Amino acid sequence: MTDRGDAGSGHRDDARLLVVPYDPCRPPEDPPQGAERLMWYLAERVALDHVPDGHGRCRAPSCATRHESFPCVGVRLANVGRLWAALGPWTEPEPGTVVPRKPRAPSPGFEDSAQ
Prior knowledge:
Blueprint: E1 2-3, E2 16-17, H1 37-49, H2 61-64, H3 73-87
Antiparallel strand pairs: 1-2
Helix pairs in contact: 1-3
């Protein structure tokens, strides 16, 4: 999987290879090593609620009332949640070691009211 960039054009400046630490077609119940566990479990819970019926529609009550086809918005968001949990900037390079986030630069025009 690559993000932005065209592999056929010969331009390598924008292309980066992203290695997904699990099979997206068959994600495990437990998060891969280094993933943000709470986000993974929340996404897994949503995915378990949004499953297809025998007619290609989602069984989740929120989707069934709208007769939404599968894959529905809920299961697609669950897939995004799993990716977010596994590849986010907070992922642990080693078990138990959380990488700190970079501090944000102050927004232009923002005044610190604590002073």
